[in-house]
Every structure is written in C-alpha cells, then in structure tokens.
User: Fold these one by one.
Assistant:
Number 1:
Amino acid sequence: MSIEAAVLTGEPETVGAGRARKRSAGSDVPYRILIGAFAALIGAVLVLYFYSIIDQSIPGWQVAGWHFFYGTNWNFFNRQYGALPLIFGTLITTTLALVLAVPVSIGAAMAIVFLIPRRARLAVSSIVELLAFVPSVIFGVWGYLTIQPWLDRTVQPWLVKVFHHNWPFNTNGSGFGLMLGSMVLAVMIIPTITAITRDVLIAVPAELIEGGLSLGATRGQVLRRIALPTSRTGIIGAITLGAARALGETIALFLLLGALDPNHPFPRGLNSGLATLSTEIVANFGQLSGTKPLGVICCLSLVLMVIVGLTNLAARLVVRRSLQRLQP
C-alpha cells in the first residue's frame, strides 16, 4: 500500500517485502482537534443566528398570523401585515433579472473562452471580475441617475404608445418600478454568472472540443452539443449564486422600485412600482418601536431566508439529477 493510501485509510504502511511500519496514532490529533473546533464554531454561530431570528419573530407571528402569507394588504405603520405582495415582488424581480441575465452571461462566458483572442481574453476577464465586486449601491445610484431618466422620458412613453396601453405597458410609468429594478438587477448579477460560467467552460476537456471539430462539427455545434452539456452542472451553480444575490439585494432595489401602491398591491405591468421583502426591511428597520414591529421585520427576514434556502435546494436537486443522467 502507498504512503498516501495509508494516511487516508489509517492502515499501516507497507515497507519493503511485507514489512509493515505502523503510523504514529497521535500524529494527526492536533489537526483533527483544530478542524473539529472550527466546524463546531461555525455550527454554533449558525444555530445562534437562526435561533435569534426565530425567537425574535415570534411576536410578529402572533400579530400577523397566517394572514401574513396570503394577505394582500401591506402597510407597516397601519399594522396591516399581508406580505404576499412583498413575496411576489421578490420572486418577480429575481425571475425577470435572471431572464435578462442568464443568456447574456452564458454568451459572454462562451465568447471569452472560445471566441475572443488570447491577448484580449485576460483583459475582458479582469473587467468582468472587477464588475462582480462593485458594491450594489453603486449600481443603484447608476440606475437612479442614468437609467431612470432615460426610461421616464424615452423608453416607457414609446412602449406605452406601441402597446396602446395594453399589458405589460398598460400604465404610465415614472421610470421607477419593476422594469428599472429588473434591468439594473440583471446588470448586477451578470458578472457573477459570467465569471463562474467562464471557469466551468475552461474546465471542459480539450479532447472533447478537438474531437468534435475533427468529426466535422462546426464551432457552434461543438459549443451547443459538447461544451454546454458538459458544463451543465457548473452553469446551474452559477445561476443559483446569481439568483441568491438577486433575492437578497436591498439598497439598489430600494432606490429603483418606487413605492408599493396600496390600491394595486401587485404590479399591473412593467412600469408599476412594487416592493420586495428586503426593501421593506430596510425601509422600516430604523422606525421600529416595540417587540411586535421588530417581530414582523424578523418574519420578513425569516421568509426571505427560507426562499433563498429553497432556491439552493432546488438547484442541488437539479444538479443531482443531471449527474445521475451522466452516469452509465
């Protein structure tokens, strides 16, 4: 048995012709203790975090009850705690952002890996990674100062005219709202999805690419039928990370989504204003008085955590199913 295998299995090392040299039993004890201590610390922090959120949300559940999940009237100061419009706003903004961002991200990653010349590849990759680290408030201010006036004066009036006030442009917008928030949110998550997808595509074995080309396939056919299917699990992971960032985005959407219309809690079109779970948390967090309002805010936080957790779980299930299909 090799030394590496003996270290991993804990069995004695074989030296020479059948002679065994027993490895020191206490050689990795400090390492095990250190790793165990770090694992226990992380577990304790997570347990304390979830316990504190759940414990502080109990007064909120007592006030809101089950109406919190299906009620459509949300007014924090009037103690109307129907959070369904906030949950819907969170899901619809993330969905629209992913619809806009995923094709652009995958196309950009494929261009970086397979189409752009090698000399320009490093520069483009560096720009993408730099954009991934830009704070969200910068994107929010950019959308507020640049994109919102353009939508208000040019794009939205033209779309309303073209669609003759029919859905999804059936309301006169002010620039703020679902359209602006989803556009800026898509720009925010494109660098993250692109950077991870690029790394996944780089890991595709060159033999597969060269084999497809040698069989007469075009570059486009190789990318569609070899590169993308081989990288499917990694691309799903990239999309999941982008969705997690979109679901939890706060400051940028707080600046861009406008206000929730109490008469129309659900957006009537892409020009309508709305609110999300995270934007409502930041809008009311500094104006809390008493345990019950704080409990309602913790309820919003808990629901947002559950949505993000379910998103990650769904992605894991999709990845597992994809891996099972690849197995013979």
Number 2:
Amino acid sequence: MDSSKIIGVDPAKTVFQLALADTHHQVKQSRRLNRKQFHAFFVNHPPAQVVMESCGTAHYWARVLMSLGHTVTLLPAQYVRPYVRRNKTDRSDAMAIVEAARNREIKAVPVKTEYQQALQSLHRVREQWKTTRTARINTLRGILREFGVLVPLGPSQAIKTTHEALDTLPAFLQPAVNDVLNELSAIQMRIAALEKQLKQIVKEDVVIQQFMQINGIGLLSATAMRASVQSPGQFRNGRQLAAWLGITPREYSTGNQRYLGRISKRGDKYLRTLVIHGARSVMARIKYRQQHHQPLTYLQQWANSASGTIKPLWHWQVRWLASSGRPGCINVSLMETMLYSNVN
C-alpha cells in the first residue's frame, strides 16, 4: 500500500492527475485516475495531506476527502501557476501544486460548505437572469427606436413603455415583441421569487443578520458575503478583508519612490461591486441626513470629513486617501472603511 504523506491533485471533470510525494515534498510517483478510481484510491489510502488548486469541483472533493480522514489544502490557482515548469500538462500541474505547498507565504483558501456554495449559486443564477433581462430590454429598445419610441431606463419602465407602444407597431411584428415581453415578465417573477428565498435564508442565518447591521450592507451584499467568506476570523482586520475584495490601492514602489494607484480590483468582482454600491449608498445617505439636519453616525462623520465633498469619483478618492498624511486618516478607500469599522 502506498504511504505518501503529501499528494498533489490536479482535478478535472473525468481525469485526475496525482503527484505522490514524501514529507520533503519530493515527488516519488505520478498516477492518472478516473473519478471512480480517484475516490477508491483515497478510501484505501492512509490519512495524508492533499493539496489542490482552488478551482471547479475543488471544494466538493475537499469535503469528500476530509470526510475520509485526509487533510486538504486548497491553494489559489494564480499562485500555483509560476511553479509549473516547461510545458503545461496535468503531470506538470500536479507537481507544481506539490512544490507550491512548500511556500508558507501562500495562504490556503478555506474550504466552502455545501450551504455556502448553494447560496453562491443562487446569486449566480440571479445574475444570469439579470443579464438575460438586460439583453431582451436592449433588443426592445433598439426595435422601438426605429419606430420613434424611446424606451426609458429601468426594467419596469421599459416593460411598461413597450406595452403601451405595442399597438403602434406593424401587425406582423407585434407577436414577436409580445413574446419578448412575456419572457421579461417571467424573468421578473423568477428574480422576485429568488429574492424572497434569500429573505427566508436571512431569517435562519444569524451571521447574515449581523452583516446586515453594517451601514450599506443589504440583502444581496450580506448573503453574497456569507457565501464567499467562510469565517471573519480568516482576516486579522477589516483592511485584510478589503484587500481580499480588491478595494485597496494597487502599489507600485521601488527604493524611496512609492506609488499608490487605483484600487487593485482583485478578488470577487461581483462581491466587490455590491460593497462599492453599498459604500455609495452610505455617502448618499450623508447628504440626505445633512439636508434634513439629522445626526450622523461615527462612520458617516469620518467619511464626510475625509472626502470633504460627495463626488462619484471613487478612484480619485482612493488615490487621495492613500496619499494623504493627515492625522487620523486611514490610508484606505471609503469602501474599505465601511468594512474596517465593523469587521475586526
């Protein structure tokens, strides 16, 4: 029976490449298995450290292998790529994974639970429906424009305007446009039903409820954060979380010259977008409360004093905050500040 202590796995749909190594990360053997053989191999193998890239199906197999008594480590794929030598093959990838596991500076990706992946899948489905809805509305907008009808922004207004202008279109075109309208109505109902399902999930999840107590974090942001972040404990502070989301300045420095540019835009684009919109709502709320002479929260006071004025120049604000040396000014963006003051 093989007793390898470290096993690098390059997973695929039907084929799995294994690199079997000793405790010194020296690869002693390579094996190529199908799905059935892969599962049987680890059922009969003594407990070992299994290292995989954090890619498709990796979290599923990590849960399966952990249930069999193995220790599983998931590494970010972009950090494994530099260890690939010569040509890119499954064998080279598996060996690179073993080599990357030696680098303690590479932080492992926490294994997601089934609950997290199911929650994230709901968001992915909702985004696909939104994309389809936008495509159909743009089609209607282009068609009606050729007949002198301007479709306003927003899905509800677009559907309403199209319904009102339907009778003015040529008779043989009306059935096709009506089919598109029916499809849009069905998509609207699906999105509404999915959001209702998310609200039900919030009632049963205390962590999401805590997320929603943060200014600017609503239903979508809280549930998306819950699906992406295994535990707030994986970040030492809010700045690490902000850097993981890609809303901290990109640094390009050498010697005594330091340059902090725009936000790095690393990490989950979808989650970053939700957080940025949440920060914008916080800034917009400041203006509303000032106009109605309502007191500001501590976070709103800080953001208002740091930005001076409320402008939609978010990249400019990031550079300004990052380069300012004013006492008490944290060198991060307003979006990071929203998280920094609530996640520790």
Number 3:
Amino acid sequence: MDKVRIGIVGLGWWACETHIPNLRKLQGVQVAALCSRNPENIERGRKALGSGPEPLVFDDYEKLLASDAVDAVVICTPNHLHAPMTLAAVWAGKHVLVEKPLGLDPAECQAIVTEAAERKLAVQVGVELRYSDVAQAMRRLIADGAIGELAILRCDIWRQWGAPGNWRADEAQCGGLFHELGIHYIDLLSFLAGKPPLWVSAAGGVRAVSRDYDYTFTTLGYAESAPPGRKPAASETRTPLAVAAFGMCLFAAGAREEIVVEAIGTTGRLVGDVIGGRLTLWPRAGEPQDHSPKRMETKVFGFPGSLESLASFVECVRTGKSPSADAAVGEALCRACQAARRSAAKGGEKMATEAQSTQRGLERGNQT
C-alpha cells in the first residue's frame, strides 16, 4: 500500500483543527475524501487541507463507503452515530478510527468487535491520551516495577464554567458526561493499570452549568495478581486490588487546562503532567528523579497523543496490527461509562462492568 487513503466523516472543529492538520504531518497518508451534509463544513475541510490533491466530496456516507478510493475512514460525528457508522464501514471493508465513545450501548459495541475481528480490519477508538509520551513513559515505568506493586491511580478534570454545547448538551446524542468527557480519563487510568476496571462507583449531581451531571467523583477497581516472585501471604484473604479515582467538575473557578495523573505503588510514586510534558518519579528513599520525555518544539494540534494516535492507526492499517485502543477496549470503556452513570443514579452504589472471566482478552490493548 503506497498511501493510506483516508475519508473524513463529519467536519466539525475537531476534524478540521486536529485530525486534518495532524494527518498532513504524516508520511504516506492522503486525505482522499471529505463527507458532510453541510456545504460550509465541506469548505472548512478543504481549507484545512490546504494545497494538494483535491479530495472527493460526499454528502452521503453510504456513497463514501462504496468508493474504491478510500481505504479507511475517520469518524467525527455526534456520539450516537459512532456505532452504526463504524459497523457500516466495517461491513464495507474499511478500516476505522472513530472518535470516542465507540457506542452508547455495549451491545452495539460487541457487534463491532465481532465483525472487525472476522474481517481482520483495524477499528481504533479516539482516546488519544494513552498515546501521549507521558502516559507511555508512565506505563513503561509501572511495568518495569519502578514503583513496586501498583496500588492507586488518580487524576482530576477541573473545567472553569465549561458546560457542553450543541449536540453534546443532549444526553440522547452524546450519552452524558461520562461518555463525552469521563471516558478519556477512564481510559488513561485503565491504560496505566494495564486492564479494564472490574467495577465502578460514582457519585455527583447537577449544580451550576449543565442539565446532565456537572460534578462527579468516580472510583474504579482493578483486579491485581501478585507480581512474579511473590507468593500471597497466608494471612491474605483476598486478591490485592488496584484502585483509581478521578473527579470531574465543570464549574471549577480558576481551573487551568492541565491533566496531571499520579500512580502510587508500594515503593514509589509517579506524577505525570500530560500536557506540560513533565514526569517525576518519587522513590521511597532518595531524591526525586526526572523522567520527562524529550519533546520536539512543534505545534500540537489537539492534545499530546493526538498525532501519535493517528500515526499508530495508519501503521495498523499498513501492517495488520491490532490498535492499542481497539474495538474491545472501546466496548470495555462503554461498559465502564454505563456502569458509572448507573452508579451515580443510585448514589454511588458499586456497579460491575462485566464478568471477570471476560477481562483477560481485553488486557492486551491496555498494555500496548
């Protein structure tokens, strides 16, 4: 495959200000088609592409999928359309990068997992934070035992009077705060834990800026086994558990755009600033160590990880590899978001995400 030919479906701000500029940075990629029912958005997409081959233009998604000029699609439509559009693309033989969430119902996600596997097609979910340099470095340090046995993960999402607008304000179209915003942090914490959560507990409410939840606190539970070389003590009555927590608030006065995540283990603590690019290891004894990744002095379109996410997707299309954030990860995230909403509706009651016996197949994506 000389070039991976991509069709962009949905030409809002994220597609035109993040995906198209980042795709232009990649070698061996051509934005071959644009699809929108809005002529103004088509022009917006053309402008984002700048000079180069003129893309095919479609106002009908089915016609784009029928085109032999497209190898893969990037879906940037409202959330409730993600699952049916992804499934249609897979049936048409196209690889898919779909913005999060993969779907609003785990059942529709499971159909995508099955169909993509049968057809050997890459389906990647747009959760870019796991692809950031800081998250990747944290994952390696945790896996290498730099902080001992992982016990706690933590981050917070504070926004200053930032209620969602347009279709994002409609629960039927976006799925609510967990599917629209919380999903990024559930994925980041799960990536660092190396597995999807077994259970979720969430509590919150509506106070200031939104019709849906505008503040929540969520806890995630991850099964943990004893590391190699350590046998569980006779006094241990249960499997060690790693827990994660994150708060979300849309009316946090003075909040800055930052994503700081902590990982605490039995012998140390990691503190990573995803946007700022800083990573510090605090060992139990000794001085803190700087593990900040080296960054290129270049403009970032989107968030750290946005460019790397697209580059990984293109590589998977070329090689047949499975994406890190594949359809199975997308289904697990949908289950976790659904469980969080159910838990919050019941005042924080612990909710299982799915049977433990089905978790093992999902752990691979969270360890890549």
Number 4:
Amino acid sequence: MKTTVALLLPLLWPLAAAAQMESNSSWGVVLAAAKAEGKVVVVGPPTAEMRQRVPATFKARYGITVEYLGGRSSDLTARLRAERNAGVYSVDAVLSGIDSMSSFFYREKMLDPLRPALMLPEVIDGSKWKSGKLWFVDPDDNYVLRIANSVSNLFHINTDFVKPGDLVSAQDLLAPKWKGLIAVEDPLVTGSGSNHAAHLYLQLGPDFIRKFYIDQKPMISRDNRVLTDALLRGTHPIVLGAEDSDVDTMAKEGARVKLLQGFSDLQPPVSSGYGHLGIMHNAPHPNAAKVFVNWMASKEGAELYSRARGSASTRNDIDQSFLPPEVIPREGVKYFDNHDWEYTVTKKEEARQAVRKILEELRR
C-alpha cells in the first residue's frame, strides 16, 4: 500500500499544485473576481463557428458568459470610436486582423498592456511557443500577441475548369483564356483584398496590376461568401479571396476545389488572419478580460481558434493534424509575411496607395 501511494504521489503533485494556484494565487483572485463580474465582451472574427464555440467553451471552462461581437472591422471600429468619444467603454478584449489592430486599436490607444495580464504558466512559458517566446508584434513588445501564422491561401481553383498545371507562375493568370473567369476581393477596400493587391504589386509590379485587375476583367466583390460561391459553381473558377475554412470544408465534402500553393515568381505569403489578441483599456469587466486573454492564449483557447479558423497556431503543443499540410509554414521556406507590423504600417500602405492610383486612373 505504501509503495502504491509513493508511486502515485509524483502524479498527484502537479494536480495539487494547479489546484492550489487556482485557489490561492493572484490567478485565483482574478478568477474569483471575474466570476463575480459574470461576463466578458469580446470582439472577434465574424464567423459562425467562432460565435458558437468561443462562448460555449469559455462558459463551460469558467462559468463566465461571453458576449461575442463579430462583424465587419470597419463597422465595429466606427462604433467603438463613437462610444469612446462619448466616454462609453463596452468591450473587454479583441481578436483582430493586423490592419485594425495597428491602425485603430493600437494607434488610438484603445489597448492596455497585454503582457502583464498574462498569468497562466502554460501561457508565459516560452517553450510552449514555436518562436521560443510569446510573439508580441507591436513596437512596444507589450500590447498585441500573435496567436496564428498560416500560409495564406492566395488563389483557389475549381479543378473541373482549371488544372493545377495550367497556372505555374502568376503570369499565367494573364492568359486570354482566363479573361472574365477570375473573381477577386475588392482591392480598393482596406482588408484582405487590398493586402493581396499590395503583395502582388510589390512582387510583380504595376504592369501586372493593370493587366490582372483591369485587362482580365475579374468579378470584384467585398463578400467572401460570394467569391466562395463563384468558385464552387465554377462561374469564376479562379478566385483570389475565398474564405479558407469554407473552401477546406467544401473540399472535404467532395467539391472539386483546390488551393494553389504558390507560384514560381511569387513568394508564398503567411498571415495571421484575425489572430491578434489584445485587452482593451478601461475594460468594463477587467478581471473577466484577463481570464479571457489567458484562456485564448492557452492550449485550449489556441486550439479552438486554430480549428474554428482553419489556421496554424503559433503554439507548439497543439496537434495540427486536422489542418491541410499546405497551410502550416515549413522550416527552410522563405515566406512573405503579409501581417508583419512594420510592413503593414509602412510599405503595405504605400503599395495600397499605388494600386489605388493605378486602378482609379484606368477606370476613369
């Protein structure tokens, strides 16, 4: 009996230590206060799976209700700016794309430092992250944590109409046979559409932009669902800007759709999608906000995000076998980081303006 107890003790110590941390440490104090606050208000990706799974899983874990706000970034930022100008603080935490995070939340000082709010050992342990440390992307290395990094799905094709061998280089997109058969996300609207256009401009030049966006007469939409539907139906079998997770689901269900994994003349891009985490200044539920950001950066929260968004995590302790192998960055491959902070606030904006000038002049 004594031998059995002795053998079990090393197994029980970590559980006891975790329980003691939750009840007696500063984390326990924060968690108790968060439960008393009762809810947390979160801005996040406007997808059904995130809307459903984040509130349900967080509530099951901590007993705290999540009020989840998902919508177009432009609409949400306008609302938050108006509220804050009126002295109203309604949001606790945010998951956002790099454009909104850098040009709105960070620039307008709507964020509190996130690093001091991270408390869980599994979150602050650098060995749990692929880069060996938490990947803070802001200039202060303190406010915005990147929790996702995936190979971006620039172009998808419907293989009933287009074979992978038809498009080896980006220049192949300019062939006359594809005229009117390409669909793209609007390159003149801030977001992924203009991100794609900036990437193409910087790597392929202004002449490619003119030929691709004007001469090829692509269908242009601001709605990813319209682009995904065009891909599925084959009305536009080459699409730039379809929703990655939707295309992956369609492929698993037997649809003849496929990701084009890069071109010979174009570096494959990586991006974080909505995978930038921040905590709001003057959060109305400050303790629940801390619990939420710790959970989202934890293994459970990061894996939920990865599954819901179909994106690779920046943590290294998540089994990502559920992801298509092509979206997981590979060692030794040079990628173009569409969501690099410095690129976003300098070169990308310059490229966007150059693209806008070209397209507006040609459309007159």
